[in-house]
Amino acid sequence: MINVTNLDQSFGKKLVLDAVTLEIHKNEICALVGRNGAGKSTFINSLLGLLPIKQGSISINGVEVTKKNNEWKKAIAYLPEKFMLYPMLTGLENMTFFAEAVFKTANTERIQQVLTSVRLWDDRDVQVKKYSKGMLQRLGLAITLYQDSNILILDEPTSGIDPMGRKEILEVLGSLQDKTILLSSHHLDEIKQVCTHVAYLNDGKMEKYTVEEFLSTHNLGGIGS
Length: 225
Fold this sequence. Notes:
Blueprint: E1 2-11, E2 14-24, E3 29-33, H1 40-47, E4 55-60, E5 63-64, E6 76-79, H2 91-103, H3 108-117, H4 133-146, E7 151-155, H5 163-175, E8 180-184, H6 188-194, E9 197-202, E10 205-210, H7 211-217
Parallel strand pairs: 3-8, 3-9, 6-7, 7-8
Antiparallel strand pairs: 1-2, 1-4, 4-5, 9-10
Helix pairs in contact: 2-4, 3-4, 4-5
């Protein structure tokens, strides 16, 4: 699903990613972890085609990520840490707006399905400015899920959310079927709860582990967002 081979990324003379290689297979939920400044954002932006690849290669669903080829974009959906929503619009209006922005028309049945899956259907007519942080993040997740991509990249989806809001987000993620997920996180409990693997980025190098392997060999102390 996601195949990264010998990826180098640098800013000036600083080498941020050093021959990074990673494979994420179908239906894996892989946590991306590393200390502040380790290069997690650089790695994600490379996957999304937002940073040009200086050396190495990235493929999504067997399609190489390049500027000339946009086919790979159909397989991937991205939820940033802070999803920019329209506070004066309701949850339903935000969903409809973003659906129409991408697909020109909004599928009302699909909107109901994803809002229900993130437990916001009953709050669909409430203005987003009245939503809690957890509700805002679940709405962002619903908008991401609307396009029904096979691969999800989620950047700190529980950042700044209270424990109850985090629990709700994790329950939604745990309920997703047939999705391959790369989840940037520094919360040990959510890694334990929803992830199958860990991609650990340290000093420009990346190693992949099962969650059990990672927890038995590493101390998460000091790892940040």
